Amino acid sequence: MVWISRICYRKYGNFVDNLRLYVRGGTGGMGLPRLGGHGGKGGDVWVTAQDGITLKKIKDQYPHRRFVAGAGANSSIRALKGGKGADVEVFAPPGIVVTTDDGVVIGELNAKGEKVLVAQGGQGGAHYCNFLPSKGKARQIRLDLKLIADVGLVGFPNAGKSSLLSTLSHAKPQIGSYPFTTLRPEIGKVMYDDFRQVSVADLPGLIEGAHVNKGMGHKFLKHVERTKQLLFVVDICGFQLSNKSPFRSAFETIQLLTKELELYREELLSKPALLVVNKMDLPETEMLLQELLDQLENQDDYKSLPEDLIPKSALHFSHVVPVSAATGLGIEELKARIRESLDAQVASQTEQETTRRIEELRRPRPPPTARSRGPRPSA
Ligand SMILES: Nc1nc2c(ncn2[C@@H]2O[C@H](COP(=O)(O)OP(=O)(O)OP(=O)(O)O)[C@@H](O)[C@H]2O)c(=O)[nH]1
Ligand SMILES: [Mg+2]
């Protein structure tokens, strides 16, 4: 176990999903009171989304993590209007939320080319400020990476999430017979015959008590905040972390996962969810599957877990798909269900938007006021 945890630490050390930076806008240039000249504005600092960048690269490339824009040029006899200071652009991967140190969101970068102003340059000296320039804004900011994928895999360790991703897509995540094989999120693309692609994020396994920092899955839950749907993956044979911990049946693992999501952020449970029941190639799993389906149908009758581990409301899955990531059984069916569920979500969102717009148009408008009626025609 010590060996595993050491490896975990080393490997996890390679993956950076948040970074703190110091940013400062450039100081404005001096004005020239004698001739009424204006100093140039200080440069700004921007964070810009670009492909092929990782937070790890930023960390390695800029060990001091300080980004200071150029100062505005002073006003002079030869150039009364001083030039603007040079802007600084920090390139970051798409999927970044930029916040202040206190967690206030400054902006989000969801697609390549989007940019957020993080530190504005100071004003150049001018007549209204006695020709004295102001300093640029200086602050600490945080870049917080939250993956953007269509579907996020949620499951206990060893359930076969990574095996499933490697069967569904061309991704090659690490697979192992010990818990916590996956130490960093990985995205795979599921390809369909009509060239449609669906991105699926494999995440480290969650364990019960993750919300009190057990295991390491909880810190990765932020990566499912932005996925459109959740794909619960359970081992039909259940899960047991060690001899000392209790055995949990497939149904109990679903309840525990739901509870962990609820404790992390309840809104996550409003996302459409599918359930994948994995390892159906193992003997006697048909019987276990029937039992699980029955438990899912009559959730209130099965209360084997302590009360505080049972989620407030049961999760309802749009589809339950038995598969074997090892043999490929049920994988085509799963691909079809994922697609169906995503399409249904888009259709329902479009419908909601249309209804909202129609209602807005139907809403009675207030009678025009005298002012908005325009000038009265002269008699
Ligand atoms: N028999 C059988 N074994 C499977 C199946 N899918 C995965 N496994 C095995 O289960 C073990 C765990 O698989 P992983 O894909 O690493 O599981 P995971 O959910 O990604 O685990 P973590 O990354 O630790 O959270 C491996 O030994 C796999 O070979 C399956 O469908 N049938
Ligand atoms: Mg894994």
Automatic annotation (TrEMBL):
GO terms for molecular function: GTP binding; GTPase activity; magnesium ion binding. Coiled coil: none annotated. GO terms for cellular component: mitochondrion; nucleolus. One of its GO terms (biological process) is ribosome biogenesis. Residues 353-363 have a biased composition (Basic and acidic residues). Its main location: nucleus. Residues 345-379 are annotated as: Disordered. Residues 13-148 form the Obg domain. It is found in: Nucleus, Nucleolus. Residues 149-343 form the OBG-type G domain. It holds the Pfam family GTP1_OBG. Belongs to the TRAFAC class OBG-HflX-like GTPase superfamily. OBG GTPase family. This is GTP-binding protein 10. It comes from Conger conger.
